[in-house]
Amino acid sequence: MTIGSLAIVLHAHLPFVRHPEYEQFLEEDWLYEAISETYLPLLLVFDRLAEENVPFRVTMTLTPTLVTMLRDELLMGRYAHRLDQLCELAAREVHRTRNDPVFGRLAHFYRDHFETLRGAFRERYKRDLVSGFRRLQDAGHLEIITCNATHGFLPLMQQTPEAVRAQITVAANHYRLTFGRDAPGIWLAECGYYPGVDKFLANERIRYFFVDTHGLMDATPRPLHGPFAPVYTESGVAAYARDPESSQQVWSSQHGYPGDPVYREFYRDIGWDLDLDYVRPFIQPTGDRKNTGFKYYRITGKTHDKQPYDPDAARERAATHAGNFLFNREKQFEWLAGKVGSRKPVVVAPYDAELFGHWWFEGPWFLDALIRKVAFDQKTFRLTTASEDLAEHPENQVATPPLSSWGAGGYANMWLDGSNDWIYRHLHYCSRQMVALAKDYPDSSTLQRRALNQAARELLLAQSSDWAFIMKTGTMVDYAVRRTKEHLLRFQRLHDEVRGGNIDEGWLTHVEGKDNLFPEIDYRVYRPG
């Protein structure tokens, strides 16, 4: 008989990046790297666990923008080509290091690794990873949840409630079309919540969401059971809080597992280390260097003199860390026993999915070992999802969480400061214009409807929290500024053409082909009321 439940939540998200006008585009690498390093490895781990009848329950967000890209023929064709390039580079690396007993072994490791990924992508999943995740959900292993349509940060959109509603309703409809059911829960982008969002969730039959620890602890009235039980909002939607202890063990740059010296060093890659002429076919067409995915060194420590990476030692360390994580959760549940009333405590451990494999190469091995240990090596707790927890404990305290996020500082400063505040007057203005369009054109002709639907897409894309975040962190700022301006300008042109009755169908077709997400969208989602 278990005394508690652990809910592992993996938030898989990337902004919509698709540039058919270029043969190669650097920012599209975000998707290709994430597939090779996170999504395919996680899918293979989960499928292997299912095939071996290892019981497990994991929650995973697949955001609408990510799902769209993972099902886009152009992008998946480009990714297939990228896998071919990686396998070609692996073959060259095996030849280059053939007389080196250390790096030759690593080259063989990468050759086998990328050949396995290519075979799985082509044959097992038929270029459709979303269907692979859906099968795991249908089999009862995964619980897939949705996210705001384009990862818009809702606390900074509340001046226009219709824009907040659109982010949620478009996402909910997209989920139904993709997975054939209502979304059971939602990952609010950046865990960004403010009082009132819950009513839009309830309208879409979404039953739960997540907040950071303080987002629940500062609720009114104060939660009786701390972050180890959910509260219901006035709309009846459950709010679950992040557990700080389990998060620190994995996330912390000082104390977390990924910083172990045995693990692979993210910042050393042959795309930067080897001779330019050798790697030129596998980097940018301009000759600018970039990561290839071939990393031959381990973290070692805070030194430039890195030691060679040993995958076997790293896999063993991942299993050791999984055992440590298991031990700490057991002790945590033993301490919590009886402290949350009659219900079993639930510990929520949410992470960006891209941590597992991309930033922490051994992350999928860690999850594989942890899930097996939870299933067979202990009886203190079990893996759960929020849906299962609510079914087991349907009665919970009613409280109102405050505005909060899981960003640095806990509120909105990552998405609103001097580096990015200029975007909001434009976003608010365009949001009001979109609401007015939906009100003034309740019915429309075919061409007019296309233009209005595309205007809704452009506004949603401009609202992506990723652009403001990139501006704040100072990485790829030019691209984030460009994307924000492009979508706002396209929206404004579409608005003006609809109002003026002179829609340029040729240009509209071009933009529809470029920003082609949410084909099912209905601009009337912005109607007031």
Please provide a written account of the structure.
This protein has 19 helices and 9 strands. Strands 1, 2, 3, 4, 5, 6, 7, 8 and 9 form a 9-stranded mixed β-sheet that branches. α1 crosses α4, α15 runs antiparallel to α16 and α17 packs antiparallel against α18. Helix content is 49%, strand content 8%. The chain starts with a strand and ends in a 15-residue tail after the last helix. With 529 residues, it is an alpha/beta fold.
Question: How would you sum up this structure in a few lines?
Answer:
With 529 residues, this protein is of the alpha/beta class. 49% of the residues lie in helices and 8% in strands.
| Element-level helix/strand string | EHEHHHHEHEHEHEEHHHHEHEHHHHHH
Report the β-strand fraction as a percent range: 5-15%
> Given the helix and strand composition, which structural class is it?
alpha/beta
Runs with pLDDT <50, length 5+? none
Categorize the overall geometry. Answer: globular
Give the overall average pLDDT: 97
Radius of gyration: 24 Å
